[in-house]
Structure formats: C-alpha cells, structure tokens
Design brief:
alpha/beta, Rossmann fold, Alpha-Beta Plaits, six-stranded mixed β-sheet, four-stranded antiparallel β-sheet, 13 strands, 33% helix, elongated, disordered N terminus, disordered C terminus, binds adenosine-5'-triphosphate, binds magnesium ion
Amino acid sequence: MVRAAGLEPVLLSMMDSALVVDGLRKRYGDTMAVDGVSFEVAAGEIFGIIGANGSGKTTTVECVQALRQADAGSVRVFGIDPQTDRASLRSVVGSQLQESELPNRLRVWEALDLFASISPTSADWRELLADWGLAEKKDAAFASLSGGQRQRLLVALALVNSPRLVFLDEMTTGLDPAARRVAWDLIDQIRLGGTTVVLVTHFMDEAERLCDRIAVFRQGRIIAAGSPQGLVDAHAGDATVHFSTDEADLSWLANSQGVERIDRAGSRVTVHGSGPLLAHTAATLVAHGIAPLDLRTERKTLEDAFLALTARQGGTTA
Ligand SMILES: Nc1ncnc2c1ncn2[C@@H]1O[C@H](COP(=O)(O)OP(=O)(O)OP(=O)(O)O)[C@@H](O)[C@H]1O
Ligand SMILES: [Mg+2]
C-alpha cells in the first residue's frame, strides 16, 4: 500500500476516498477537544491515529460516525454525510468503541447473532467467533468475560456487518501478547478483503506494523502525518552507530560521510549522524584497519518520532 511518503499525494488522488474529514471541531465546555482536524483516508488503507491521552482521538472518531454532534466541519464516508444519512452510514461502517458495554447477561453468541440480525450485510458470525478466539466462550455471559475476551468480542461485533470501513479505538488494549499478534494478522486479512481501517492506538509497534499512514494528534490537532517510515525519517532524530575500540585517535572518523558528532566513553564510541551511517562508518573503520566485532546501529522507531514530536510541542499531555 501507500508507504513512500513522497508518493502519497499522487497515489491518494488516484484512489477513491473512504473518508474525508474537513475542519472538524468539537468543544466540551471549556475544553476544545477537537480543534480543526482535517484528513483523508483512501479506500483500502489502514490509517492510524496516535496521540497522548485526551488529545481528541476518540472524540474525532465518534464525531466522524455521528455518534457525537460536531460543532463544525464536514465528514464524508464513501460520499455519505453521517449527520443526515445514518442508515446508509450504518450499512458501510463497523465500529469498536473505546469504552463499549453490553448487557451483563447477554451471551457471546447472542450478541453476535443480534448484531448480525440487524445488519443487511452480515458476515458469518461463527467464523468471527473462531477467528477472534471466542469459540470456547460462545455461551458465556458478557459479565463473565475477562477484559481481553470482552475486547475481542467488541472487535468481532464491529466486523459482523462486513463493513467497508471499520473504526477500531484501542483494539488491542487488554489483549495478551499472543492475542495482539493474532489481532494484527486478522487486521491484515480484513484489509486484504478490501475493508478500510481507521485504527486508534497507543501501541507504537502496532501502528508501525499495521498502518499505511498515521496522523499524530496533540491537543485536538494533527501535528504530523505520513507513513510510519516517513514520520521516523522526519522526526525520530539522528542515526547512531556504536562500537568499541582501543584506538586512541579517531579524529579521521569525523570526515566520514554523514557523521555529525562522535561521543566517547573509554573504549565505547557512539557516532551520531544521518543517512546510511552504519555502512559509511563501517567502510571508514575498515579502511583504517579497525573491524569492531560489536559494530551496530540503533533502529529509530515510531516511538522515537512520537516522543520527539510531542516533546517539541511542550509535553505529552493535553
Ligand atoms: N463527554 C465529555 N464531556 C466533557 N469532556 C470530554 C468528554 N469526552 C471527552 N472529553 C474531553 O475531551 C478531550 C479529548 O478526549 P478524547 O476522549 O477524545 O481523547 P483521546 O485522545 O481519545 O484520549 P485517550 O487516549 O485517553 O483515549 C479530553 O480533554 C477529555 O477530557
Ligand atoms: Mg480515546
């Protein structure tokens, strides 16, 4: 899918839009929860929304689905205006909300059957039961499920109407590590089936692994957007290369391509710089007769980019 940051506008304009959000605003009393948010999600894309607690992610996805009334802005879901045509919206959208509850005594299969019965385009809920590891809990009441099992049921319910666009708000919160991996594979499969996914998450590894593009929220605004790699390249900071040597004079290394700074603590050396720093540093060292066994680079991640972005803006809380 759309991964190269530079290609995005061209590719996006060639693809159908699943979702177009323009100038969305929502205020709760004195709190400006969403402060002019605009973004577009291409059909077939997995679009991530990340941001600190209280940065307006849930309010945005709820306003987009007309579950909350926005103060301003326009939203189109496959051309549908959610405010004026809720029936059409419901037939194309699936939703796992951050804090959903079901009646305590409702059994797992009853919930799936109920949701399927009110949807004109329902998937086979028995398959969803197996996919999401709930087959053994088929007859269990909602109140008796563990946190992770509830979460899995809520995701399965979001998919029961075979949606063209699904909103997943903290889909894997509460899931054990193995269940998270299963959930990731299932999301991949859902996308392969043509469903567009909007994924709100606090897990940077999840966003990096699943999303084609990501919007970073802070205090109700999008402060950065792009592919995971694009965000890492633009915001995660310098590359670093580490190695050990007893060589006293490394002044020649400063002239190696991409090197900006060299820190030294005894035999341990850290090279800061940009570009393919590991390759250039290795070549320069070898050319000077040094071949350190522990030469390694630190891969920058989306978490580095997220922390740098939110720190630069003055903290991580809204
Ligand atoms: N029903 C409400 N009434 C008043 N204020 C609200 C309400 N819902 C949310 N807010 C406020 O709006 C802001 C945005 O909240 P929102 O739930 O959209 O954040 P979020 O990014 O989803 O956070 P989290 O990561 O914790 O889920 C917060 O300051 C929150 O306190
Ligand atoms: Mg939220």
